[in-house]
Amino acid sequence: xxxxxxxxxxxxxxxxxxxxxxxxxxxxxxxxxxxxLLVPAILKADAEFFVFFGIVELFIIVYLNCLIDNxxxxxxxxxxxxxxxxxxxxxLITVSIVSNLIFTCFLLFLSVISMIFxxxxxxxxxxxxxxIPWLITGIILSALSSVLTGNTIMAGLMTIFNFVLPWILYVxxxxxxxxxxxxxxxxxxxxxxxxxxxxxxxxxxxxFIKYVEKGSFDIYYxxxxxxxxxxxxxxxxxxxxRRKNENTGNFMVFDGYKYFVSLLASLILPAAFTSMTPESxxxxxxxxxxxxxxxxxxxIIAVLEKSFRISFFSIKLFAIFMMVFIIxxxxxxxxxxxxxxxxxxxxxxxxxxVGNNAYAIRQINSSIxxxxxxxxxxxxxxxxxEKTALFKEIENIKSITELHKELLTNQNYGFxxxxxxxxxxxxxxxxxxxxxxRSYKLNVDNENSDDGNKNKDLIAEKIINSKELKNxxxxxxxxxxxxxxxxxxxxxxxxxxxxxxxxxxxxxNIREYxxxxxxxxxxxxxxxxxxxxxxxxxxxxxxxxxxENSYYLEIREETKNGVLYFNQIYLNDDFKNTKEFLNLx
Amino acid sequence: MLKINDLSKKFGDxxxxxxxxxxAESGQIYGLVGSNGCGKTxxxxxxxxxxxxxGGYVDYDGNNVYENMDIIKDFYYVQDNLYFPYQYSLNKLxxxxxxxxxxISQEKFDDLTKFFNIDINKNLNKMSKGQRKQAxxxxxxxxxxxxxxxxxxxxxxxxxIKRKFWEILIKEVMDREMTVIISxxxxxxxxxxxxxxGIMHEGKILREENLEKMKNETKRVQFAIDGEFKAVQxxxxxxxxxxxxGSIYICTLTGNSKAFKEYLQNNYKLLLFDELSxxxxxxxxxxxxxxxxxxxxNKK
Lengths: 585, 300
Description:
The complex is a heterodimer.
Chain A: H1 2-7, H2 10-20, H3 22-43, H4 47-69, H5 76-83, H6 89-117, H7 122-125, H8 128-148, H9 152-163, H10 165-183, H11 189-199, H12 203-206, H13 209-214, H14 219-242, H15 255-276, H16 282-305, H17 312-339, E1 349-355, H18 358-371, H19 381-386, H20 394-409, E2 423-430, E3 435-441, H21 450-464, H22 467-473, H23 475-478, H24 480-483, E4 487-494, E5 500-506, H25 507-520, H26 528-533, E6 551-559, E7 562-570, H27 576-581
Antiparallel strand pairs in A: 1-2, 2-3, 4-5, 4-6, 6-7
Helix pairs in contact in A: 2-6, 3-4, 3-6, 4-6, 4-8, 6-8, 8-9, 8-14, 10-11, 10-15, 10-17, 15-16, 20-21
Chain B: E1 2-11, E2 14-24, E3 29-34, H1 40-47, E4 55-60, E5 63-64, E6 75-78, H2 90-98, H3 106-116, H4 129-142, E7 147-151, H5 159-176, E8 179-183, H6 187-193, E9 196-201, E10 204-210, H7 211-217, E11 218-226, E12 237-245, E13 248-255, H8 257-267, E14 269-276, H9 280-290
Parallel strand pairs in B: 3-8, 3-9, 6-7, 7-8
Antiparallel strand pairs in B: 1-2, 1-4, 4-5, 9-10, 11-13, 11-14, 12-13
Helix pairs in contact in B: 3-4
């Protein structure tokens, strides 16, 4: 009975904590309402900006409150006072968490009032899919960080560190992949990371960014939130039990956590360095990375231990960590190395891509993954406009595998270098559902690249003149299913002065001439390979001489939502029939 | 009864508590005395489970405190380095602690604040050190704990207030059979109120005894003999320390002082023999001197 009485002091303690915050409630209400309601209303300024500014303030206010409430853990006398009372550390922390959650709800309510007052669009409310879980986890993480540390400033820093911990791991994994990229031909760190994050390490879900993009939430949203909260509370509970209160006043209370932070942080600087210098050599990069890692670790340990004399144990731990890191990196390199020369058989490939748009391919692949099965990927909204060609015909797939083999043996190709044009991506979507992507960087050597150019140009020429590519590039000319429910208009524009000589002509009038011209056109280029990887440089895409007699077509699709810019065709010599119909010289 | 069994603690590589064993009976005032940095505060924090021990446990009335933390509701700890919540007055502090101590007495609180003449609405953090000590003491007594731990509670207090403190404390112990453990360097004060004393040094309890028994066991004699006295060992007494001032010898010994007198009579011509009374401070110095503390010679 008496025990129950003691246990029941949770609510009175909570009420006492809320009462103790009344000044915070008052001042925060003023800050939020002035920022989000009064200022934009009086100044007639962008309400959306001020509401978001208010949310940033909200985060800061909640963050400060959490740190202040848990600061009793960081002073010997405060801690001794509170822990000597018949309220356990668990209860005190729980009171602090619940009290701050209630305070946060109140502040969120104020921000919603402002949004309603300004009649902001519904999409703005989607931000709450992210804000609410971030605040909840932030409050728990702040408590956890306060338990782990012995100093309030350090608790604040560690709250941020713990919050971005999945991103720190991301940076370290990216570091491993960048080493792989530097050592193994055909592997791109961006592509590897993209695959890793889309398949295993779904940070967009972990941070709820995906739900803001989607604009809706589902059962998984709640499930993810529950799991994150449960895991954090479990860790918090374990840490509370094991807290070494005698270390209060030190930067870190737990030695294990101190080394965990130091070791991870020691890799951030080398990782950032390598990402900033993508062009430098691999040996130099590895050497500098090791030096930076050692230096960072020493400085972090020296700061945390408040001594420049580093213990033997710290050195031993760092050596073990680096060994593990090297083993993991070497394992990844070995695995990649075993697969670097693999080129699939054309018969096993369902669909293939060659070009330089790695981003588009990653987008397409993630769409394919999400939708499981896409009947015709070339119809997907994304590359309706980008015209990223995905080849399904066996001849083109064969040509791509040939080009792939050529790239494995010879990466030379002479042309004017630019960042985009020197990176080649080859991707295969296999019949068994798997996906292969390789990335190559061309050695742009104009003097010694004749052999490299010849083979690549010959293979590329076959692809760029294929019927399949024409169909993909000009679906509004060749694909009747695509065309039948759409309305296209054409403007004929002078290439020199921009004058529109023909306006709003229906595509129907000119379509047969355009088809004939594209059918007949054949790109026999000395730099067919370059044309291929610049996917927007096919027929009628190459800029023509600027003079009074040169013209281009602006082709627009008209939809219910208005006029949509769609395509542009330069009327070069290949477009004889079209020019004749339009009475152009 | 509060019992500490084999309590040990290491801070890093430093062993701060070494197999501490203490027994404090109900209705007893236990004085915890020791050299500076010997671990008194650390021990008190272990009793309250603020610090977790590496080994050993604290037992109260047959219950392991570490396994049943609800027992702590009957304990009250007043630390040396006092802390009060920000902007709290004594009245507000009382209201706060009322949420946690079920036996807290408003009547006692009112009586004590009047007795000590404390302004209950004054911000505690704006009070003087002495006033803050009084406020903390008032809270501790008002909470009516079964075990009260006081760390350097009379440090910095004037003699009148000290007298008031002891008066209240003794009354509470007698009325409610409360167990009190007081850690202090003011040995003269403890000498007057303690029933039992534990002497600590370098994380160890050197000696734990009822104060009266301790005084009876450790004796100081002064004597004069014809000739030079040579230290001797006997089954009936142990000479701890001998000091010669002129022709007078002062010896601290444990055991039978009469047997020592007989030894002197049998072996020397005894000119003078007086038995002096020992106080806690002298016993403390003697005990610590026995382990080499404070016996270092100034080379100058």
